[in-house]
# Entry
Amino acid sequence: MTDFTLHDKQSAPQESQALLDVSINAFGMVPNLHAVMAEAPGLLEGYQRLHELFLNSSFDDEETTVVWQTINVEHACHYCVPAHTGIAKSMKVDDAITDALRDETPLPTARLEALRDFTLSVVRNRGNVDDKEVQAFLDAGYTKRQILEVILGATQKVMSNYTNHLANTPVDKPFQKFEWHKADS
# Structure
């Protein structure tokens, strides 16, 4: 396995140093994911921008969590599931939602379940979602805008999940208590 450097401001490429300041300002630390991504400044910058855009989408905090964690769990991301568990707690998302996402059990509402189903369909079918699934999403009260915002969230998660798989990114200390492993199918 290739070893990736966990960069700090001293070891990071020049183009990543200001980006690591953005991470510190947002999270109070350089998350290990960002420390790995710093090797490729364009990846880190793109990830940070997509994160900001997705946080500012039309989804509320619960829905944002559903999209993120659905993808993290589907991709079996050892790093992002614990990290987003901690993020969900900081966003005051009900633990019942987080637990259902982590455990792949039913969500508390049909609307959130429709969001998870649609997100899974987008990911599993690489965007080739049939009309019936799109209509079920719209019938649940979501919009065409939100169809496209699921793609935005999926794009962000592909960047982080794939990076973590390749780099075997160590989970940050604050999130280690939320360790997670995908249940056997």
Summary: The two ends are 26 Å apart (CA to CA). The chain has a mean pLDDT of 97. DSSP finds nine helices and no strands in the chain. The CA atoms of residues 73 and 102 lie 7 Å apart.
